[in-house]
Amino acid sequence: MKEYKIIEVKRSVFADNDADAARLREELKEEGTFLLNLMSSPGAGKTTLLKRTIALLKDELNIGVMEADIDSEVDAQAIAAEGVRAIQIHTGGMCHLDADMTRQGLKEFGTQDLDLVVLENVGNLVCPAEFDTGSTKNAMILSVPEGDDKPLKYPLMFTVCDVVLINKCDTLGVFDDFDKDAVKERIRKLNPNAEVFYVSAKTGEGFDGWIEWLRGQIQAYRQ
Amino acid sequence: MKEYKIIEVKRSVFADNDADAARLREELKEEGTFLLNLMSSPGAGKTTLLKRTIALLKDELNIGVMEADIDSEVDAQAIAAEGVRAIQIHTGGMCHLDADMTRQGLKEFGTQDLDLVVLENVGNLVCPAEFDTGSTKNAMILSVPEGDDKPLKYPLMFTVCDVVLINKCDTLGVFDDFDKDAVKERIRKLNPNAEVFYVSAKTGEGFDGWIEWLRGQIQAYRQ
Questions:
Q1: DSSP string of B78-113?
Q2: Which residues contact B96 (CB under 8 A, 6 or more apart)?
Q3: Cα(B20)–Cα(B16) distance, integer angstroms
Q4: Residue B156: which of A70, A75, A120 has the closest Cα?
Q5: Which one is predicted more confidently, B95 or A180?
Q6: Which of A36, A86, B58, B95 is the most exposed, fewest CB within 10 Å of its CB?
Q7: Residue A130 pLDDT > 60, yes or no?
Q8: What is the DSSP letter of A61?
Q9: Measured between alpha carbons, how far is A162 from A49 in angstroms, rounded to an integer?
């Protein structure tokens, strides 16, 4: 028996996604549910990072995860195995989620008892950056193997993020042309307020800073 | 002085992209220009792979490269440095190229004396798969750090490709959970005709098979 639902979301009927996202943000604020929109390229390590994050926070917070994918349910399976509530959202081929698609998922999910919902967006550095999901905060993962030039090529993604997690930092010895200082400078130039953490979801390196940041954001939100 | 142009392409005015792509394919066939559409996630190694491919073929073929990106011109710079003709296409935020956008680039470029034009599409596994660019053949790169589950999550991309290059295979020792057989089986299930090559654009491993395949495709096309 499956421990997660699969939801097929429909394209939004709202012309003004920004206004709809603002409404969703208010609804979530009233409930006290913090929605984290997690974005990255395919294969940057969203699910692995999320599994470790859940393990470190699940004793203090009620957590739910919405996995958005074009197809498959491998991520929801992996998250459900961590013992938190998960649903799989299928976007019907769409390359991103907008606020109404996010709301459809949240509604099916039932979020009133949840402190933190993570939306694992479709793996894509272009389209998800263009659509406000109604999230409380936006996080993105850039993985070391992708290279340090990504802020130059996908500037909007780096601009809309509150936090950038540079993942797979255990492979910096292998990808030795990755310039840690240059990438941070490129991110700061686009988005001076973005927090940047070097982490490895595989080894746990750097998670102290990231978890402390996330915990602080959730505490501030609920006050 | 720059050795490449930057073209800002406009969204297509044609409602039927498939018909337009078929027209473009005929136009290129008349000219004898082979158009390779190269797709992948951000950071899978398109430019590095292309540089090595150019070095191996530029003595026997006239090659041009169209670099499509949301922003920046780092790729066109890198390709122009290889001594082949390059242009940078800016998509104005769009996540893919369609046939008419490709035609706009080709027109600016001037392709009559070129045997092979490579279109380096926007780094994205979703949208470029949905739009026929008019290319002669489609190639995609899956890099080992992205993981072996990508055919499950982005099935359309693997379905539309004539060849899949599994790049960064020099890092299989680091990413030791990447299952070489499983990924091949997942690709074949979606697309039994796809050629699959393991390559490393960094070390040159596996390039014999890829270059031989590409050379054979171009020869067959021109007969």
A1: HHHTTTSEEEEEE-TT-SS--HHHHHHHHHHH--TT
A2: B121, B122, B124, B127, B128, B130, B131
A3: 6
A4: A70
A5: A180
A6: B58
A7: yes
A8: S
A9: 17
Q: What is the ipTM of this complex?
A: 0.89
Residue B17: pLDDT above 80? yes
Residue ranges covered by each domain of chain B = 4-11+18-140+204-222
Q: With CB atoms and an 8 Å threshold, state whether A145 touches B70.
A: no
**Which residues on B lie below 8 Å from A43 (Cβ)?**
41, 143, 145-147, 150
Q: Cα–Cα distances in Å, from A203 out to A48, A59, A120, A168? A: 11, 21, 21, 9
Please give the CATH superfamily to which domain A5-221 belongs: P-loop containing nucleotide triphosphate hydrolases (3.40.50.300)
For residue B11, give both structure tokens.
């969204």
Of B122, B153, B171, the CB nearest to A126: B122
Instruction: For residue range A39-70, list pLDDT tens digits in order.
Output: 999 999 999 999 999 999 999 999 999 999 88
Task: Report in angstroms the alpha-carbon separations of B36 from A38, A79, B30, B217.
Answer: 33, 39, 16, 10
Q: Are B145 and B171 in contact (CB under 8 A)?
A: yes
C-alpha B187/C-alpha B185 separation (Å) is 5
